[in-house]
Design brief:
alpha+beta
């Protein structure tokens, strides 16, 4: 299986997302090609970083002036920081301009083979493909919590999908975003991604791609660009996660805490978009759920990453490894780039809640699988919430 887009234990100041299984990697047509280089670079990029991190960054050989002028593009293994305490994602103002956002529509690789080995646990028959349906514009009116994640990796700029979720420490004022682990961290073979930013209601009016080439940033990102100032994923994803085969997929989730690129109006992300979903860490097993809806911005052909789609289906079960949690699986034709997008089902109170996220899917699109959120996911979520509880 291939992740749609690249969990992490903890990351400070922002990380860029990569999809696993179905949403993050380069498309099959371009699998052997290196993603294009950024279309534009900031000319006077402003980097914002807490004073208490500056000395530690210097100890690690990170010069903020050099970072602003291009050092963030250096992916030398010795400088690709892996440990959570070393994760850094300083804001580079203007980096994610409209051209660069469009050119970043290449998901991180996270595919699986159509036949998954090691399925000694409970695996239901492969679901029939469900054609993804375009979400009706405006996205803000019909899917206010959804958005795109942009980030940089060793092979270039990439994309994932994500969802605004509630923050227990700040009711009604959340700055937390849920996505896939492979959208922030490369797993066992690498480290944190860089320049991670979230754009809620990307291309809110569902404008055609050709029109977007001349559209101002205010139309493409009407609710602003929000940089990750902290990211956290599971230890299992960091130690086991792989670009293909489904390794680490049952723990492929992450939470990003964000802050507005330009300081904003003082409003939180939740207040800005007007909504945030609760997260259900005790959702029923697949047989007891009638319907799940997955949303995302698929970027691999036949999609181009510029519009929001969704699939609804009754979930089945998928076991990647017998000794690991069984995943949810639905029929869906969304491709890479949809990784990290939220899966929503009605909770015990009858109201919608996030119960999973897109993690993996087959090379030939037809279904998606996402982790069943349990204690590990709840621990990541609570940790990020508590970190910013006093702020």
């Amino acid at each position: 299986m291939r992740p749609i887009r690249p969990t992490l234990a903890a990351a400070s100041i922002a990380a860029v997302l990569a999809l696993a299984a179905t949403a993050c990697g380069p498309s099959e047509d371009n699998a052997g090609e290196k993603p294009s280089t950024p279309a534009s670079q900031p000319t006077d990029g402003k980097i914002t970083i807490p004073d208490d991190l500056k000395d530690r960054l210097k100890e690690r050989g990170i010069d903020l002036d050099k970072w602003k002028n291009g050092e963030w593009k250096n992916w030398d293994k010795g400088k690709w920081l892996r440990e959570a305490k070393d994760f850094v994602n300083p804001i580079i103002e203007g980096l994610w301009d409209p051209d660069r956002m469009r050119d970043a529509d290449k998901p991180p690789e996270k595919p699986v083979d159509n036949d998954i080995s090691g399925d000694k646990g409970v695996t239901d028959p492969t679901p029939a493909p469900v054609n993804a349906q375009a979400v009706k514009a405006s996205y803000h009116s019909n899917a206010a919590e959804a958005g795109k994640v942009f980030f940089d990796g060793p092979e270039g700029s990439m994309v994932c999908s994500a969802t605004v979720v509630k923050d227990p420490a700040h009711p009604g004022k959340s700055n937390m975003v849920w996505t896939a682990g492979h959208c922030v961290h490369a797993g066992k073979s690498g480290g944190w991604y860089r320049n991670i930013a979230f754009v809620p209601s990307y291309n809110n009016s569902a404008k055609p791609t050709a029109t977007l080439e001349k559209a101002p940033k205010e139309q493409i990102a009407p609710y602003g660009v929000w940089w990750g100032d902290w990211a956290q994923t599971s230890e299992q994803w960091i130690s086991q996660g792989a670009a293909t085969g489904g390794q680490g997929a049952p723990f492929d989730f992450a939470v990003i805490h964000v802050t507005p690129e330009k300081g904003g109006t003082g409003k939180s992300l939740e207040e800005t978009v007007g909504s945030a979903l609760p997260v259900d860490f005790n959702a029923p097993a697949a047989p007891k759920i009638d319907n799940m809806t997955a949303k995302g911005y698929p970027a691999a052909p036949p999609y181009d990453g510029q519009k929001l789609f969704q699939c609804s289906d009754k979930p089945g079960r998928l076991s990647v490894k017998a000794n690991e949690p069984t995943m949810y699986r639905i029929g869906c034709t969304m491709t890479g780039g949809s990784s990290g997008g939220g899966w929503v089902a009605n909770g015990q109170d009858g109201k919608p809640a996030l119960v999973s996220n897109t993690s993996i899917g087959p090379v030939a699109a037809g279904w998606l699988a996402g982790p069943r959120l349990g204690d590990e996911a709840k621990g990541v979520y609570n940790s990020v919430s508590k970190k910013f509880a006093g702020q």
